[in-house]
Amino acid sequence: FSFTNELSIAHQSGEAYFHKIYSKEEKNEFYTRILTETDFTRLSDERKKPILESEGFTILAPLNKNTALQLNRYYKKSFSDIDIEVARRFGNVFEQ
């Protein structure tokens, strides 16, 4: 699951935002590692279960020079153009 690398490349390339949908398998590859090797091990099993059982992972991250806002969905549905525009505007507030 390479979203962290892909997000970093998009930011370094000067993209305005990063938006991608990942499969359940890709998501679980990432989260299995995160939930066993980082501070996320402290999450309760009750909280881990819906993350691992969800059908996929959708990310939207407006990218600015010094900040990035990350919005996640634990299902495979693209963010709309309106969602993207609102998120970009909101992200710009933190850049000021």
Automatic annotation (TrEMBL):
This is Uncharacterized protein. It comes from Pseudoalteromonas rubra. The lineage of its organism: Bacteria, Pseudomonadati, Pseudomonadota, Gammaproteobacteria, Alteromonadales.
